[in-house]
Amino acid sequence: MITPDTPVQFLKGVGASRAKVLAEHGLNTAGDLLWFFPYRYEDRRHPTRIADLGRHLDDPVLVRGRVISAHAKVSPVKRMKIFEALLEDESGGVKLVWFNQAFLSDQIKRGDRLAVFGAPKLSSYGHLQIEGPDWEKFEGDEEEEGSIVPIYSRIGNIPPKALRRIVAQSLEIVPKIDDPLPESIRETLHVGPLAPALEQLHRPPELTDEFLYRRSPAHRRIILQEFFTFQLALRVRRATEEVKKKNRRIRIDDSIRDEVRKILPFKLTRAQKRVLKEIADDLQSPRPMYRLLQGDVGSGKTIVGLIAAMIAIRNGHQVALLAPTEILVEQHFQRISQLLDHSVVLAKATGSATPSERRTLIAGLRDGYIQLVVGTHALLEEKIEFKSLGLAIVDEQHRFGVEQRQKLFAKGETPDILVMTATPIPRSLALAMYGDLELSVIDELPPGRLGIKTAVRASSQLERIYKFLDAEIDAGAQIYVVYPIIEESEKLNLKPLKLGFEAIRKRFPHREAAMMHGRMSAADKEATMQRFKAGEIHILVSTTVIEVGIDVPNASIMLIMDADRFGLSQLHQLRGRVGRGQRKSYAILVSDVESGRLARSGRDGRSPEQERLDLFAETRDGFEVAERDLQLRGPGEFLGTRQSGVLRFRFGNIVRDHELMERARDTAIDVIDRDGVARADEIVRRLLGAEMETARD
Ligand code: ADP
Ligand code: MG
Description:
The chain has 22 helices and 22 strands. It is α/β, with parallel strands linked by helices. The strands form four sheets. The protein has a seven-stranded mixed β-sheet, with no helix packed on it. A seven-stranded parallel β-sheet has the order 12-13-11-14-15-10-16, sandwiched between helices. The longest helix is centred in the last third of the chain and has 37 residues, at 658-694. The chain is globular. Residues 594-603, 641-645 and 692-697 have low confidence and may be disordered. It binds adenosine-5'-diphosphate and magnesium ion. Residues 266-269, 272, 295, 297-303, 422, 446, 551 line the site of adenosine-5'-diphosphate.
């Protein structure tokens, strides 16, 4: 009797050495084998007659026959080892050719019966042949003839057929399997029970298109189980590791509304109003807020955050605004001081504070005298205590992690958390990355913004670009020049930047130019930025340090060198630094991919890189850029590889299957609301148990 826990060595055909190989691939028990799915299938019910191969040129088909001759030789032209076999069925013969697989001469012999799967091609001499086909031997009667055969990825040197027999034995336990998803959840997810799904994935009755596209009911069952497990685990973690309730009662009355109206220098856009309502609802709810506010650069997130801050402050709580760099802290501090005009006690926390300033700050936060503090992540340090932190706003950081969130919670009052980012994350990804965050999107720019003209140019055109810059500077404009140096990189090589800066200085001897990069001290960066803001610098040559949140309305040209080395989303961020004032603005992407020098062959003669940049130049909306970026680079590249690891699912693809992810998320929320956290936790454990028991890979 085989059960899910039966070790693989008790299966027929598995001795000690095969058991070891299977274990190396995470397959320890019969249950594990059930979750070891075929990666493709072969329909061996309908082999193609060799005489008919001509009708299937370049189209992979199954052919069955007997080997009439087989030999290895060296190709005279390419000096490559070739193994050739002639395969014959009752209708005719065809040549099979394998390159650089001389060892096949030990495995394929005259007289063998073979099933081969591959695409017939015309050789350079004009005969039909099949190159490098998948092949398998038949010995005597073959039970697999006339069936759909699952093809599993290779495990060590276990022959495919033996492996199939081993896995097939595990299918015996399918009827006895416990479904980790209770029926009520299956209903909400719109999926069927697990057992038939597993059975079908190993032994599909038909290879329908839906099945081959991995969207059959059986596939959906697995996809949704995995998505749901992921979403529920996120929610359970959020609900258990952190506090479920907050003790604040937040009210929004007319006096607060009046005050907000007074500080508003403009009318909010419709999108800002909508998002503000979502945030206000969260603030008043008994559950702590954890919301991601996305909005394109310049969409006006700051004021929304500030109004949320006013609500918390007027209800007697403190607010912290966290920004990633000192420059941004300074910028927020100045802007907020202007807007609030002393109606709130405002403080700034930066690394450059003197010890006595720091003491005052610490005391002010502890006593509750300071109502709003703007600072870097230094605010998360243990020494900093708040009397009553009600709201934390995290600006320009879409990767605000669990750890940082816990540090905030450690500040004692279960603060509401609002994370703001201008990095548009496509919905599909946001859902997969942050199933436990609520999402708000400002999808509208304030009125009256001038468009940013985006152009892609080759470096051979630099002189023309420089002439244009000269004319614009004469007209009063300021310019950013950015080099593709990734600031996070450990081997920060500033040479290209320095050379670039020298070249700019030489070309523009009568202009004021300055350089900025991440190696400079905060104070130096700050000073440079202040000079740029004050208009004392015409050309700021820098790395991507200027990427986030900087607001210099008079800077109207963004010149990006080697633009093809940036991701589209990053280009979009850079482009967002201009177009913030009254001046007509430009983003100029310099890339030699455009000149065709690096171009690979592509449709209509454009290289993929070229298409990518051209696409970018045509697209203004950040979400659209992000969506394209995601499609072009895939989630791994888009997120950076470290982040994407957790988002790997068996059949589920977070981009293609985002609706299913949404359904999984909604169901997870449902389960927690309806059955409570303890029960949800139990379900997660069962799901993860089922997974761990079966897939330790
Ligand atoms: P971001 O979303 O990139 O952080 P900001 O909050 O810095 O954008 O806003 C960009 C600029 O737009 C600021 O100068 C701000 O004062 C202005 N702004 C924001 N909302 C509006 C609005 N509703 N009408 C007009 N100007 C606005
Ligand atoms: Mg901002």
